[in-house]
Input
Amino acid sequence: MPKSNRNKKRDENHNCKAVPSNRMPVNKLSVKSVPVSDQPVSKQPVNNQSASNQPVSEHLPANNLPVSNSPDNNLPLKHPLNSKWALWYYLPEKNKDWEACQHQIHTVTTVEDFWSFFNHLAQPSELLNGVDFSFFKNGIRPMWEAPQNVKGGRLTVINTSKCRNIDINEIWLDILLFLIGEYYEYAEDICGVVLNVRNYGIKLAIWTTHQDKERLKSIGSSIRQSLTSTLNQAIPFEVHAETQRSAQTSGRASSKNVFTV
Ligand code: MGP
Output
């Protein structure tokens, strides 16, 4: 997605539309390994209203009132997210096991931090083959073995090898906003999202903490509603334990779909 569309998206109908974006400090990411985009960061749209006059978005939880990080209140207000989120980057390296190749590279706690970070982050279509991005609630490791994932599974929203003419960059942003907004039912059931860039295509799957069919169907329909583009195909759900077993026995990290939503 072009940067101009990303800015438009940020300002439109999502939970973050009330962000006083011209006042955001655009952080330089401190971690060198972050796969940042080489595109110039788009200019933030001008917004003349003072940050303190901005209404909190109706989609933000009521307790997410803007806070100032500055003791003298001179810095702009920031809007806390309901949860703290972490981005993990997986880059396969020779002679290292899978877990050692997972790196937590950044966390975000406010709407403003999210945009500062996202504007510097490479888009899925710019990533190298073999890489994963995982965006998870802070404290949950993006792996089957994590206690929050061990009884859960994944909803594969998109697999570009099976679905052509899809803007994966747009879907990635839609899903990130969906996650940090947490304005849908059963938001507490979601651990995060994993994006796998492979030579056959890009997969994007939401990881859940359980396998409850009714709740997953509700989450599936919320995911569909959150997407800018219509998603016609079904969303398969796979149980992590089965996927893990399959990876150990056949070397393929996939399992029979339990059901679709
Ligand atoms: P993958 O990256 O999820 O699938 O798992 P990929 O690359 O799309 O491959 P395919 O088999 O689906 O075509 C690839 C491999 O990474 C697995 O076989 C495991 O060896 C390892 N791996 C992946 N995950 C998600 C985990 C995990 O959560 N824990 C551990 N220990 N290894 C994992």
